Amino acid sequence: MPDLNAYLNDPEAIDALDDLYNPQRLDRQARRGRRPRGMSKSRRTRRQRAAAKVAALAAAESEFATTYTPSRYEEGWLLESLLPFYEMGLLTDVLAVIKGGKEASVYRCQGHSDSGLGLVAAKVYRPRMFRNLRRDHVYRQGRDILTPEGRPVGLKGDRIAHAIQKKTAFGQKAAHTSWLMHEYTTLQTLHAAGAAVPEPYGAAANAILMGYVGDEDTPAPTLHEVTLEPDEVKPLFDEVLRHIDLMLGCGIIHGDLSAYNILYWAGEITLIDFPQVVDPRRNRDAYAILGRDITRVCEYFAGYGLRSDPAAILERLWRRDIGQTPAERDADEARLHWEPDEEEA
């Protein structure tokens, strides 16, 4: 656990903590409505507020004791990220880390007995993860900005989009929330549609709680980590394509599908990792993004000798679920705007 007494006795640490959580740091309107105060009184007030926050967090975390011992660099943000699920009565313990990565870490947790949950998985995003996504604008095309409740922001959307584009502190926080909630709401949509995805149980500011795939000792590996039996190759390939088709019918393209984010357990697959999903009807690069997903899947199964035509699969699925391909649409638009020159007339 962090040395909380050190925070309480260190004025500079308290000021830094208060700055981090102070809404006036992120909200321009709140700053405008702030009344000028004397420096000494303001600093005392800020320290008192920060001390109260730290004390409350310390009390809650002292109850939330975990079997898993986090490393020094992760203990603060891990417990704080999962604390809302503990307080909601969804989990009681963090048992082990089952996947670490550049973007997020996934932990095997024990669900609360009153919730009816057994083992669950908690995906905890690394601090500043969404600020470092490369070419994130490609995925944001046509996507709503989502609130912490998973709803589009509505009338304030233009202002928030501008803040995200300028990468202000407020914009970065809004982008983080939106990316996380896109993953959570996608899991909700696909699970309701019968797709093989983890069942979503809850979302917090920096984490998603979902169904766990594996047993008490071993989490499900990815396709990249297993060797398939010869008689599994074609059925699993067809199953992955069926899910790509199902997602497309739900207006969803995974955006980063490969053998690295398809779990394999007891002969079945589970698709994971959806923060970068795109809408095939609202993203102008959707056809190319879907093509990349299909190509990666075909390349993986080609390693087992299964031949396929990614371009043909892409065109077939797109025509069936969406309609015209972008090339066909562009050709139609060109014909509509074509005007014969004087000699042709």
Structure description:
- By secondary structure, the chain is of the alpha+beta class.
- The protein has helices spanning 4-8, 11-21, 23-26, 28-32, 39-63, 75-87, 136-140, 157-166, 169-192, 230-249, 286-302, 310-321, 326-336; strands spanning 91-99, 104-111, 119-125, 200-203, 207-211, 262-265, 268-271.
- The protein is flat and about 80 Å long.
CATH architecture designation of the largest domain = 2-Layer Sandwich
Principal-axis shape: flat
Order of helices and strands: HHHHHHEEEHHHEEHEEHHH
Structural class: alpha+beta
Determine the fraction of residues in helical runs and give it as a percent range.
40-55%
Radius of gyration: 24 Å
Q: Under the CATH scheme, which class of the largest domain?
A: Alpha Beta
Question: Which descriptors apply to this entry?
Answer:
345 residues, alpha+beta, Phosphorylase Kinase, domain 1, Transferase(Phosphotransferase), domain 1, 3 domains, 5-stranded antiparallel sheet, two-stranded antiparallel sheet, flat
How are the elements arranged and paired?
Elements: H1 4-8, H2 11-21, H3 23-26, H4 28-32, H5 39-63, H6 75-87, E1 91-99, E2 104-111, E3 119-125, H7 136-140, H8 157-166, H9 169-192, E4 200-203, E5 207-211, H10 230-249, E6 262-265, E7 268-271, H11 286-302, H12 310-321, H13 326-336
Antiparallel strand pairs: 1-2, 2-3, 3-5, 4-5, 6-7
Helix pairs in contact: 2-5, 8-9, 10-11, 11-12
How would you sum up this structure in a few lines?
The chain contains 13 helices and seven strands. By secondary structure, the protein is α+β, with helices and mostly antiparallel strands. It has three domains: 1-63, no CATH class; 65-218, Phosphorylase Kinase, domain 1, CATH 3.30.200.20; 223-332, Transferase(Phosphotransferase), domain 1 (Orthogonal Bundle).
